[in-house]
Amino acid sequence: MTKIAVIGVGRWGVHLLRNFLAHPQAEVVAIVDPHPERLAVVKQQFNLAENVLLTTQWSDLQKVPGLTAVAIATPATTHYALIKDALTQGYHVLAEKPLTLDPTECLELCQLAEQQRLILMVDHTYLFHPAVEEGQTVVQSGKLGELRYGYATRTHLGPVRQDVDALWDLAIHDIAIFNNWLGKVPVSVQATGTVWLQSTVNNQQSTGLADLVWVTLTYPDGFKAYIHLCWLNNDKQRRLAVVGSLGTLIFDEMSPSSQLTLLHGEFERQGNLFLPVNQSREVLELKTGEPLQRVCDRFITSVFQNTPTSISSGWVGTELVKILSALTTSLQQGGQSVSLQ
Prior knowledge:
Elements: E1 2-7, H1 13-22, E2 26-32, H2 36-45, E3 53-55, E4 69-72, H3 79-88, E5 92-96, H4 103-116, E6 120-123, H5 130-141, E7 147-157, H6 166-182, E8 188-194, E9 212-218, E10 224-230, E11 232-244, E12 247-252, E13 260-270, E14 273-283, H7 291-305, H8 314-332, E15 338-339
Parallel strand pairs: 1-2, 1-4, 2-3, 4-5, 5-6, 7-10
Antiparallel strand pairs: 7-11, 8-9, 8-15, 9-10, 11-12, 12-13, 13-14
Helix pairs in contact: 1-7, 3-4, 4-8, 5-6, 6-8
C-alpha cells in the first residue's frame, strides 16, 4: 500500500484526490491546501476518515508516518520548490503539468530524482487517453503512408489565465500528442500571437498575455505541425490530425461517437490529373477507462516497482517545457524561428 499526500485540491487536484481514494493500492493519508475552505469541502465531499491529515502547511507532512509519495496540483510557479523539497525528503512525486516553467529547473529535478532513486512523473493526462494510445499505434504502423504534416486546434471561451498566456495554458497537450505519435521531438519552433484582453501598461500589447497563438513545430525529417490556440473563441474545439499520403488520422475529443477516425484515401495520377481513390472512413475502436485514472495507476505501479514510466517521466516533461520556452522566445521575437538543437 502506497501512502500518498495530495498537495492542492483546486479544480484539478480534486480529481487526483478522487482517483487516489479509489485506488486499491493507494492510501491517502494527508491533504495540503492553503485555503481551509477547500479542505472542508473535500472532507465532506469524500467523507474522509478522521485520521486523514488536513492542513494548510506543507511542512506538516513531515509528521506523517510512512508517507512515500505526493501528488502536486498547485500553480506551476510553485512546482520547483515543492518538488525539490519532496524529492529531498524522499517522496516519490506526481506533478501536474508543466513540470516547472524553466527547463533548467526541470533538468535539475530529473537529476535529483535519479540520484535519490525516486519516481518523478508528470501528469500529461492526454498521453494516457485511449485515443492517443491507439493513434500512436496507427501512425507508427505506417498505415498513413508517407507523413506529410499535422494540425491541431484547441479553442474555447475561457477560462482566461492571468499567470500565463494561451501558449503555456493550452499548447502542451497538443505538443505532447504530436511528439508521442511521431516518436520524435521538434528541432525548431515558431510562434506568433495576439493580445486583446490583458494588454500591459500604455497598451503595449506585445508584452501582454496572448489570447491567440499560432504555433509551428518542425521535426527532424521536415514534418511540420501547426497548432491554433485561443481562449477567446466560442467555437470550442479539441481536434488534432496527422496527414499522410494514404490517409488522415483525426483525434476529435469533442466527438461523442468517433473520437479517433482514420480517413483512408490517396491520389491516382492520370496524365496531368490527380484523382482521389480508395476513399473510406474508419472509426477506430478504443479501450475504455478514464485517462486520469490511468495516470494515477501508472504512478502507483511505478512507485511500487520503483521503475519510471517512459510515457510521462520527468524527462518527457522537461522536453515539453524546453519546447514551450523556445516558443515563448519566438513569440517575443515576432515569430522568428528558434532552434532546439
